[in-house]
Amino acid sequence: MSLTRRNVGQAGRERRGSTIWEDEADEYWKTMEPAKRCRRITNYLGAVAVALLLGGGVFYGAQTALDAASIAALTARLSTPQVTPQNMSNVAPPAPVNEPAPMTPDHVELDLEALRGRCRVRGVQSRWHEETCRKLCVRDPHNAACMNGCSYGSLTVTKLVCDKMQAAEVPAAARCPDGVSCMEACRAYDDEKPFPDLRNSCVRGCSNIAPSACARALQVYRDLLTGGPQ
């Protein structure tokens, strides 16, 4: 069976993916002189048939005048892609492996500040303070003063934990930083009547919430360090 330019063109249109043999045949047709093309192809190959199984890409037969060694060599060429400057240019270089940059003092400081910021947001922006203070002050005769003192104590303790404590000391911490002065905060009621009843209710609310607020703030900090409950 003799090959012609038309046969090669039709085969290329009928088969969606060209084989290596077809690519080489196309190049051969382009470089051969028109006068010598048919004669040399006819003498060189008696019959060649290369087909692909649908979806399989398997070289299943070749009706040629080549000997067994030539067929084996052709099969090896079809199964092993050749490395050429053209296809080497399409090979993506291996992605570089980025090693983590060492932590500098500036990075550590930035990370700590970000952690403190998340602690404040999660610790303060919560209905826990209001709900807990309402339970503590429900029986206080001066509920409003008690609620004000309780809210002050709860929020102040939370902010102290987030702003003052170091990450390394939080996991084993059993107490919170000093800095909550309930008496000083409740002096705002010194000029309110009945005195000192309002001030005392304020101080009670502030003092009673401090232990619970401390435990909760520490837990919020620990959860952030370990990626615990949001």
Overview of this structure, please?
The structure is a single chain. By secondary structure, the chain is mainly alpha-helical. The protein folds into two domains: 5-82, no CATH class; 105-226, no CATH class. Helix content is 59%, strand content 0%. The chain contains ten helices and no strands. The protein has helices at residues 5-14, 20-31, 34-44, 68-79, 85-88, 105-124, 128-137, 143-164, 182-185, 197-226. Helix 7 crosses helix 8. Mean pLDDT is 72; it is low at 1-6, 11-18 and 33-67.
Number of helices: 10
Strand content: under 5%
Roughly how many Å apart are the termini? 75 Å
Shape descriptor reads elongated
Q: How many domains make up the 3D coordinates? A: 2
Query: Which structural class is indicated by helix and strand composition?
Result: mainly alpha
The low-confidence parts are: 1-6, 11-18, 33-67
Mean pLDDT over the full residue set: 72
Q: In this structure, how is the largest beta sheet organized? A: none
Radius of gyration: 42 Å
**How many individual β-strands?**
0
Helix content percent band: 55-70%
Order of helices and strands: HHHHHHHHHH
Keywords: Membrane, Transmembrane, Transmembrane helix
Transmembrane segments: 41-62
In short:
The chain crosses the membrane at residues 41-62. This protein has helices at 5-14, 20-31, 34-44, 68-79, 85-88, 105-124, 128-137, 143-164, 182-185, 197-226. It is an all-alpha fold and 230 residues long.
List keywords for this structure.
mainly alpha, 2 domains, 230 residues, disordered N terminus, 0% strand, elongated
